[in-house]
From TrEMBL:
Annotated GO MF terms: ATP binding
Record-linked PROSITE patterns: ABC_TRANSPORTER_1 (PS00211), ABC_TRANSPORTER_2 (PS50893)
Keyword ATP-binding: yes
Family under the similarity heading: Belongs to the ABC transporter superfamily.
Domain (ABC transporter): residue spans on this chain: 6-229
Pfam family, one: ABC_tran
Name of the protein: Lantibiotic protection ABC transporter ATP-binding protein
Key words, A-Z: ATP-binding, Nucleotide-binding, Transport
Amino acid sequence: MKDLILKTNNLNKAFKGQNIVDNLSLEIKRNSVYGLLGPNGAGKSTTLKMITGMLRPNAGDIIFNGHLWSRKDLQDIGVLIETPPLYDNLTAKENLKVRTIALGIPQSRIDEVLEIVDLTNTGKKRAGQFSLGMKQRLGIAIALLNKPKLLILDEPTNGLDPIGIQELRKLIRSLPEQGITVILSSHILHEVEQVVDDIGIIAGGKLGYQGPAPQGHELESLFMQVVTANRKVGH
C-alpha cells in the first residue's frame, strides 16, 4: 500500500456554472516532491487553494495524513502561493519574528529556518533590498516556521534569474530528507523535471496523467498530449 500524505477524491470546483476543477483525484506520496503541471488556467491554483482551505470544493474529498481534511490540518501545511508576504522595511529575522509571535512559535525556530533556506548571513539588510530569489527563499522560510509535513509552492520560480532558480531547486530537493513533502505547481516543464519524483498533469481542470516524471522530450510530448486531449473535450 502506498504511503500517501495527501489524496483527493473526485475534487470539483465550479465558478458561475463552469467547472474549473473537474473530478480531480491526486495521490501524493509522503516525503516526495510532486509536480502539479498544466498550462495557465488549467485549475492548478484553484486545486491548491482548496487543499489550503482558501476555497471550498463543490464536491469531493481531501484526505490528509490518513484522515478527512479539516482546518486543524493547516498547522501541518506550509504555503507559498503567488508572492511572499514580506514586510519590506524589516530584516529576514524580523520578518520571521513577527510570525513566530503571531503564531506562538518558539523564536529558536527563526535561525533553524534561515539555515534551511541559506539566508543566515543577511544581517541588517531589509527584505525590500533582497533579490527576487532571496525573497522567494524568505517566503519559504516563513512557510516552514510551523514545521509543516506538507509544503505547497505555486509557481515559485516566476521571475527568478538562473542562479535564483538553481538555488531554489537545490532547496526544494533537500526538503523530503527533512520529512517535508512538497507540492510544486508550474507550467515550466524543464524546471520541474529536475526536482520532482512524480507528476500530475492537468488541463481544463481534468487530470490527464499521474505517475513518475518522464524526462526531456518525453515529458514535453506527454504534456502536449494531455493539453490537446482536454482542449478537444472542452470545446
